[in-house]
Design goal:
The structure is a single chain. The protein is globular, with a radius of gyration of 21 Å. Helix 9 crosses helix 12. The protein is an all-alpha fold. A two-stranded antiparallel sheet has the order 1-2. The site of one calcium ion has 7 residues, from strand 2.
């Protein structure tokens, strides 16, 4: 038995027995995957993909699912999908295939996570409703934002980034298409694409406006770190007024997408005024270097 097939048989059961370590395990394998880059992927294409499939293929897996996995293990996208993604993203054909391989890797980690959760909490509702939907789930996505994209932010914002990533699929895992389109904005987005993403994140109830209440929630979470303040909320309220003045171009008391774009067009540093939701330049460069 060689190292690869040992890994393939060992990982799922180990995860199932030790759920508290799953986050670390997942990121470990993602980091290794990203760091080893194209060489590892090519190697995997030659031998690992098919063998891993053989070892972990559960009896419940449908034949169709198996077949598509075999095709996708190499990162090959079907021609129609490739054309569509080339039109809608800022990535080349090679980069898209590389991102597809990373997606497959992340999805297999998500499946291990779901199984681990199901095993450790039998009556739990976590992960059950969408357990059968293939995609990148919250847990893996957050770890990725944190350790690969240097996004260190609190829970509300993290949740918003997840749900805004692939619009219209609230609560569901991120699918391949959404993953690639989201990354295109993240890594090579035009100013307007980035502004649109940030605005969606900050518009907490998705009604098309960032209101004072939403600003308060966002800024309060960012700002309150000094418990010695007598009434920290007062400070936040004052700050909301200052920021609103800056953004509310048409003076209707809330920030529309138009207000937001015009303001960040004039002062790009205000793009992430309500909390970090884009990767650092360093993180972008090192991620792109692995493609
Ligand atoms: Ca809103
Ligand atoms: Ca306004």
């Amino acid at each position: 038995m060689n190292a690869k097939s040992r890994d393939a048989t060992r990982s799922p059961s180990k995860n199932a027995q030790t759920p508290p370590q799953k986050g670390t395990m997942i990121m470990k394998s993602v980091s290794i995957f990203l760091a080893s880059g194209r060489r590892a992927s090519n190697q995997n294409r030659k031998s690992g993909g098919a063998r891993t499939q053989g070892q972990t293929g559960s009896t419940r897996a449908s034949k169709a699912n198996k077949r598509s996995r075999m095709e996708d293990a190499s990162g090959k996208l079907n021609p129609k999908m490739m054309e569509m993604l080339k039109k809608r993203t800022h990535f080349s054909k090679d980069e898209l295939e590389s991102l597809c391989r990373i997606y497959k890797k992340l999805v297999s980690n998500c499946q291990f996570t779901s199984r681990a959760l199901a095993a450790s909490t039998p009556s739990s509702i976590i992960a059950k409703p969408h357990a059968m939907v293939e995609g990148i789930d919250r847990i893996v996505f957050r770890e990725l934002l944190h350790s690969t994209f240097d996004i260190v932010t609190e829970e509300t914002l993290m949740e918003r980034i997840f749900t805004s990533w692939d619009r219209g699929h609230e609560g569901l895992p991120i699918r391949l298409e959404g993953w690639v389109i989201g990354l295109s904005v993240f890594l090579r987005g035009t100013p307007i694409e980035r502004a649109s993403f940030c605005f969606r994140v900050y518009d907490l109830n998705s009604d098309g406006f960032i209101t004072k209440d939403e600003m308060f929630t966002l800024l309060r979470n960012c700002l309150i770190k000094q418990p010695q303040d007598e009434d920290p909320d007062e400070g936040v309220k004052d700050f909301v007024e200052i920021v609103l003045k800056k953004f509310d171009i048409d003076k209707d008391g809330k920030v529309s997408f138009q207000d937001f774009c015009q303001t960040v067009g004039e002062e790009p540093l205000l793009m992430e005024a309500f909390g970090q939701c884009l990767p650092t330049d360093t993180a972008v460069q090192s991620f792109l270097a692995t493609l």
